[in-house]
Write a structure and sequence with these properties.
The structure is a single chain. The protein has one domain. The protein is 73% helix and 4% strand. The protein has helices spanning 2-8, 10-25, 33-48, 53-81, 83-97, 100-115, 119-125, 139-186, 193-196, 198-207, 209-222, 230-240, 249-260, 288-321, and strands at residues 264-269, 274-280.
């Protein structure tokens, strides 16, 4: 009985270890597997690129199936070797996929630069958060861009990976991270990728549906920790999120706006085009102090998501493994 329960805790232990490791060290500065995947994806793209959806779908499917097969083989090997090997496998995969610590560190750096009036420094850091053109942004624009990125990536970089690690172990979390990386690379509406990146963008939308909505719920729950209103977060989410062009980013951004009592959205200049985003929330434009609060809110949501992921993994996995039929 004890051995069965211990085996069932392997995934929970791995997820917990990954969260602790990410909090301690953040993303590796060199040789990050996500960067290596991006390099491989670019190499494949350079060989097969054509300006149509079918070729883009083949490109996306080939890369994601390859990642899924490799991760599944790794997880099977871990399971055969016992609970600690399984924990190490899930932990390594989850650590690779998590980016919440680096997200908050970069957000705090942006807040410090903007608070000190160093707009040039903030413009240099902004590309680490999002794909907007920093050269055309003033202090207010840089603040809004950073805060919206903190909101969206609280889901993309932390909550959604934890959802997939809990639901499907190493294959789930690594395929999710690969899909999210492809979306960042080719999922935007530039002239080159409007057709070729369509499949990557749609797959990423589906992969983030649950994570984004869990993020919204956790923002509502954590709003009081930053002096915000759960009711305002809920109302902004339910009223405004559907107007955002992304079915998932709108949830996180609207919930953050309501929780912080600010207004997000408006003209958004990307490298490839200008987008006029809908208004999210009904407060004032964000200030540097709101960016600081957004980082604190993101951390609170991340911790809450980690606790949920470990608890759900422990209960569900140990219950299944300890079953008399197992």
């Amino acid at each position: 009985m004890f051995a069965s329960v211990l085996a069932g805790l392997g995934r929970a232990a791995g997820i917990g270890a990954a969260v602790v490791a990410d909090a301690a060290v953040g993303d590796p500065q060199r040789g990050h597997p996500v960067a290596l995947f991006g390099t491989a994806a670019s190499a494949v793209e350079s060989r097969i690129y054509r300006d149509d959806r079918w070729t883009g779908a083949v490109h996306t499917a080939t890369l994601l199936v390859t990642v899924a097969a490799a991760a599944a083989a790794l997880q099977r090997a871990g399971i055969r070797r016992g609970p600690w090997a399984e924990a190490a496998c899930v932990g390594a995969a989850t650590f690779v996929a998590l980016g919440g610590t680096s997200l908050c560190r970069t957000g705090a750096q942006m807040a410090a630069l903007l608070g000190g009036g160093d707009l040039d420094g903030a413009r240099r850091v902004l590309p680490s958060l999002c794909g907007r053109d920093p050269s055309v942004l003033d202090a207010g624009g840089l603040t809004r861009a950073a805060l919206e990125s903190i909101a969206e990536n609280t889901s993309d970089a932390q909550v959604a990976p934890l959802v997939w690690a809990t639901a499907a172990g190493a294959p789930g979390v690594l395929v999710y991270r690969a899909a999210n990386t492809l979306d960042a690379m080719i999922g935007h509406r530039s002239a080159r990728y409007a057709e070729f990146g369509w499949a990557a963008a749609r797959f990423d939308d589906v992969a983030n549906l649950i994570g984004a909505r869990l993020t919204g719920l956790l923002v509502v729950a954590c709003a009081p920790l930053v002096g915000g209103s759960p009711g305002a977060a809920w109302r902004a989410w339910r009223r405004d999120a559907r107007r955002h062009p992304s079915p998932n980013a709108g949830v996180a951004e609207a919930a953050f706006a309501g929780a912080l009592g600010i207004r997000l959205g408006g003209p958004t200049q990307y490298a490839h085009q200008l987008e006029i985003r809908p208004t999210l929330g009904d407060g004032r434009p964000p200030e540097v102090a709101d960016l600081v609060r957004a980082v604190r809110l993101s951390r609170s949501v991340q911790v809450s998501a980690a606790v949920l992921a470990v608890a759900v993994s422990a209960v569900c996995r140990s219950g299944r493994r300890a079953s008399p039929r197992s």
